[in-house]
Amino acid sequence: MRVPDGQDPQTPFPGFAFFVAFQQAEGGGAFGVFEDVPEPITGGFSEVTGLEATMEAKVIKEGGRNYGPVQRAGPTSFSTVVLKRGVVASRQLWAWWSLFAGADDAPNGGWAFNRADVTISLIREDETLLGWTLKNAMPVKFRIGDLNAKGGEVAIEELHLVHEGLYRSPPLS
Length: 173
Description:
Pnp Oxidase, Chain A; six-stranded antiparallel beta barrel; two-stranded antiparallel sheet
């Protein structure tokens, strides 16, 4: 696994199964937490849940069709993705969360311009197997691990993300 340029190669990403990159979504604004970050913010997480898309079928009843209704594709919804037990080599994720939570005074509702495309790559040993991208993701929960000076706990216990699209993507390497 290769850590993108500009990131700290000493960050212990290889101990985690998922390599995650956060980058400002296409069409993002001219200000915000991602504007001065040339490379994706990267991190490692040990568990990812919620990579799920559900399409609601639309039932159309046709007169004269007695062997059941016609089924058509309807709207798709996406589950909240939860990244668990992670380490990130940047302080920008907290700034991103706090922007949405209202802790920062971003002009003109800055949260609208700070959606991120989040790429999640599955890593086994030194090989990247597959990747998924969450389009226009927004953090909805940020949980820090318990602080203990004697332990080696991770920096982020959970990060919950809602998003507007789930796509298969080439893995980051």
